[in-house]
Write a structure and sequence with these properties.
Distance between the termini: 60 Å
Largest sheet: 5 strands, mixed
CATH class: Alpha Beta
Helix content: 40-55%
Number of strands: 8
Oligomer: single chain
Strand content: 5-15%
Length: about 250
Amino acid sequence: MASGLHRQEYLSEEIKKISDVIDKSIVDNNKKKQKRKYLGGSSLGEECSRKIQYRFMGINPDKEKEFNAKTLRIFQFGHEIEDMKAEWIKQSGFDLRTVDKQGEQFGFSIADDQIKGHIDGVICGGPVELNYPMLWECKSANDKKFKEFTRVGVTKANPTYAAQIAVYQAYMDLHENPALFTVMNKNTCEIYYELVPFDKELAQRISDKGVNILIATKASDMLPRIAHNKEYFTCKWCEFNKTCWND
């Protein structure tokens, strides 16, 4: 009995060692990735311009706010889901194009390459009577967030995603037709589809926001915080909370 228990404890220790080594590798490899030296179209819609500015400046996140292995696996899972959904759309007869002739993602670049964006794809035709071409934007979400998308739509459920779609439609010249926004439920594998008309005012506002961040950074000015104390919900969970409020 004792020897069996001893073996179980030994195996638990070995399993933990395996898990720790793999998790450390995931985190270390993520740190090796080159940081963006431009403003990404996917993040310009975030609530706080100062947070976006910190990222653009290459400021390191607060130590305790760095992504752990579990979070990084969730991110990677989202990327894998994108590939699966693209294949399902193509095999159903839609002319979905995700890369150009050189095998690179479609994208745009403005302001001397200081603002860039890469889209998930363009649907150029298909078995359903729609106006083509249309932007395709692919996301995934947990069950709670997925249900919010189905209940209120992308604009209310995630303003950052809505801003991303509007900016991509504008700069990729895909504004004439609604975008196809898709979200997969990571818990159930359900997929939510939504046609999103171009929001010209939103695209302009987000574009102006990007320019303001560039101007402020060039002048060595930090943009205002979005709250009066660090306990504000968005600030509390920000990766630059300490950096921002210690300035």
